[in-house]
Amino acid sequence: MPRAKKAVGRPSRVSSQGQHLPSGTGCIATSVSGKPCLDPRASKNMPYCSRCMKTGDPSLKVTKHPHFGKILVANRKLRKGYYVSWWGKLLKRKSDMPSKHMEWALETTKGMIDAVPYKGSMLQFCACPGPSEVPVIDFAPASDILLKKGQDMGAVIFRTLRDIPKGYQVDMMYNKDEKTTDEFFKEQGIERGDVGTKSYPALKKSKAQLAKLKSKNRAATEKMKVKK
What is the value of pTM for the model shown? Predict the structure, then answer.
């Protein structure tokens, strides 16, 4: 990662994960060695520098999945609490969003964020964990700290929920929780399946959670048999 002049303004604090904080003035991206980017932010409402907006956070990597298009993986071990931003063009209304971009749109309190034109906005490539897998990233507290209505660009802050080993997928639920995510997939006519692969694994649920899931599926099967 280039070492340019430090961000101007008040000193930017660094988190326990080695990042500049979203509330600070420094770029929140980090190198593959875990060092914070020293380039200044592109603007006050954007948590990345111009270079990292173009290329993405070096600690993350976009790659191809054998069945589900592009996915996001950890390019190094990431600890719980690592910040990542979903950013893009801020649109006032849903109707302003191109229909072909709606599948990857992020709805916020200040409008819709269209990340599709910006490949450096890496969270748009997150896969959804399957029934036996767990999400590893979600909205951070005060996720809209940088979001202001009327801006051309908007950024929402996410944070990892658990440690992510290098090479593992960075995945998130596609709705509020697992139940509403299942409903979302059903509405789309898609069967929600596990996304982990040998090359790019996804973190699994605990044995207790998997046992509960197996019991739930068995009960659902028996209920269908009775209906027939």
Answer: 0.84
